[in-house]
Amino acid sequence: MPILDPRIDAYIAQSADFAQPILTHIREVIHGACPELEESMKWSRPHFLYKGILCGMSAFKEHCALGFFKSAMLFPGLEQDAMGQFGRLASVKDLPPKKELANIVKQAMKLNDDGVKTVARARSAAPRALAVPDDLVVALEANQAARANFDAGSPSFRREYVDWITEAKALATRERRMAQAIEWLADGKARNWKYEKC
């Protein structure tokens, strides 16, 4: 009998109606393939552990995702993205057949049994240049505290704000994000400050 983490029960129950059968199916197949499995919540998402992380699953507004931790070794040549190795899962039919998925779990278990480490990604020689949009530059110039905190932040700190603002599709959304960014920056907050550990 598998040991289920009640936090994952809650995660599934709070997910959208379409997502619940997908997440439940994934969980059942993984437990069936690996009875010694442990469940945990990492990065606010359900993860499955066997001598290390095997995989994790996520539910979003319109799709789910399943990602294997050592995906580069399990799926050589497959371009990796944020949606895991199976793309956007909108129904159980989007997953491989149960037997095939169980075999992938067993391959991931073998990698952990053998102590195989994840493949390190090659780092680019130089970080990607950050293009700060003109309207953000103007807004920062109008608020010295925000400007000072933005300039003092790490490249990823600044990039998170720039990406958040420039990804807005509507002008009204961009303006709202800009005002919110200046307020948070003036307070010295990172873009995702709500999720930082206290």
What would your notes on this structure say?
It is a single chain. This protein is an alpha+beta fold and 198 residues long. It contains 8 helices and 4 strands, in the order ααββββαααααα. A 4-stranded antiparallel sheet has the order 1-2-3-4. Strand 2 (45-49) and strand 3 form a beta hairpin. Helix 2 crosses helix 4 (98-113) and helix 7 (155-166) packs antiparallel against helix 8. The longest helix has 16 residues, at 98-113. It starts with 5 loop residues before the first helix and ends in a 12-residue tail after the last helix. The model has no long low-confidence stretch (mean pLDDT 86).
The overall number of domains is 2
Q: In the CATH scheme, what's the topology name of the largest domain?
A: Aspartate Aminotransferase, domain 1
Percent of residues in helices comes to 40-55%
CATH C-level class of the largest domain is: Alpha Beta
Q: How much beta, percentage-wise?
A: 5-15%
- List the secondary-structure elements in sequence, H or E: HHEEEEHHHHHH
Distance between the termini: 37 Å
- In the CATH hierarchy, the architecture of the largest domain is Alpha-Beta Complex
How many beta-strand elements?
A: 4
Coarse shape? elongated
Largest sheet: 4 strands, antiparallel
Q: Strands of the largest sheet, in order across it?
A: 1-2-3-4
Which structural class is indicated by helix and strand composition? alpha+beta
How would you state the average pLDDT, rounded? 86
Extract low-pLDDT stretches. Answer: none
Computed CA radius of gyration, to the nearest angstrom: 21 Å
- Please report the number of helical segments: 8
